[in-house]
Specification:
- The chain is of the alpha/beta class.
- It has one domain: Alpha-Beta Complex (Spore Coat Polysaccharide Biosynthesis Protein SpsA, Chain A).
- It contains 12 helices and 13 strands.
- The strands form 3 sheets. A 5-stranded mixed beta barrel has the order 8-11-9-10-12. Strands 2-3 form a two-stranded antiparallel sheet.
Length: about 325
């Protein structure tokens, strides 16, 4: 199994980030990356894919957004070369942006019918190949030096030649935010499970009854990481769901993933890394802190955070 293509879903308008996302697409919100450079979220996600060996990226976007994204990257590249002429880091960054531009494709979700439909919009570009799926509002920090989270996932999928969902052991009070699953540990494969059951954002009582996974710490469940390797068989499942009646239906992705797990081998991998949801409350702040603490300016950032905490503690006592 060779995985050359990735899909990034970025069509949603970011209601959880209102009012900021009312004027700026959430995928274009700026964050300082681990290399110390400020980038839009979508560029950080795309670099996750490219640095894991992906050759082509399809961004599923809302009508009109393709022009905006392309104009931004072209302007950024040109401005870097003009404002920082002769500076080595600017030249290297400009080359990275040019490489990204050359590998970007866009699929427009004209009439949204759920997250499953958003993924389905990438079908003409993916064809009959397996692909990496990334969420446009999740960023990932690997705990393995020199190996991205997406690379960990791709390596397992290629070795086992099957679909794989990245998961993270998540505390019980957070299961209502994520797709949650249970499965059987695979012998000889550390942190790998054969998926049995998936429920989208279950209640805690439902998770306790139906989604306990042997071997996890008490009070923890396997929740989706926002990163998947999927086979093209998923598209036929979504297509069937979209046209189940006389009219198109909204289609969630999770039930389609459950159906995929019934039809073919579908594994879950506990990645050595952490996911950050920028749409969660204080999600942008937590994501920025995580990127900073994993990057070049880690010591400076740790000092700043400790000073802030100390100052806050002093004020609380006064």
């Amino acid at each position: 199994m060779q995985i050359r293509k990735a899909v990034i879903t970025a069509a949603a308008r970011g209601a959880r980030l209102y009012p900021a996302a009312d004027t700026v697409q959430k995928a274009m919100l700026p964050l300082m990356d681990r290399d110390g450079l400020t980038k839009p979220v979508i560029q950080i996600i795309a670099e996750e894919a490219l640095e894991s060996g992906i050759e082509e990226i399809v961004v599923v976007c809302a009508p009109g957004d393709e022009v905006y994204y392309r104009r931004h990257f072209q302007s950024l590249r040109e401005n870097l070369m003009e404002a920082q002429r002769g500076v080595e880091w600017a030249r290297l960054q400009s080359e990275k942006i040019a490489n990204l531009e050359a590998r970007l494709r866009f699929a427009v979700q004209d009439d949204p019918h759920g997250y499953g439909h958003a993924v389905y919009c990438a079908r003409p570009f993916i064809g009959d190949e397996p692909f990496l799926l990334l969420l446009g509002d999740h960023l990932y920090v690997s705990h393995i030096d020199g190996k991205r989270c997406a690379q960990q996932l791709i390596e397992l999928a290629q070795r086992e030649e099957c679909a794989v969902a990245a998961v993270q052991a998540t505390r019980e009070h957070l299961v209502g935010r994520y797709g949650t699953l249970t499965g059987r540990r695979q012998q000889g494969l550390a942190g790998v499970y054969q998926i049995d059951r998936i429920i989208e954002k279950p209640s805690l009582s439902q998770a306790e009854l139906e989604l306990n996974t042997p071997g996890l710490r008490v009070g923890h469940y396997l929740c989706f990481f926002g990163m998947y390797i999927l086979t093209p068989n998923l598209f036929s499942i979504i297509d069937q769901a979209l046209h189940a009646g006389d009219e198109k239906h909204d289609v969630a992705l999770t039930p389609c993933l459950q159906e995929l797990a019934k039809r073919e081998r579908f594994l879950a991998l506990e990645l050595q890394g952490t996911r950050y949801d920028i749409g969660a409350k204080y999600g942008l702040l937590q994501t920025q802190l995580a990127l900073a603490l994993a990057g070049h300016d880690r010591e400076e950032m740790m000092t700043a955070v400790l000073e802030l905490l100390a100052e806050s503690a002093r004020r609380a006592k006064s």
